[in-house]
Predict the structure.
Amino acid sequence: MLTVAIDRAPNSLTNSAATQKTLRAQISNWNSQLKSLAQTWSAAHNGSEVMFLETHPIFETILNSPTQCMYTSYHNQLFIRHRVLG
């Protein structure tokens, strides 16, 4: 599921509290729709299994120690994914 610390994410720090609140609501709505869609799909496909990956711990790790995760810019995201997730 998509869970980001909107109040800590570098690209959101300049957003107003109202914008951050709106974004949190949009992310929550997205997660609800995704969960519903996955449950519907799984019910229609016997024997299937749906797995959700909770991304919050990954984002927290990066936000807590960006240099340790070698996060320097948006363009470094693929490297971060490899470094943090292994």
Remarks:
- Residues 78-82 have pLDDT under 50 and may be disordered.
- Residues 58 and 85 are 8 Å apart (CA to CA).
- Residues 17-44 form the longest helix (28 residues).
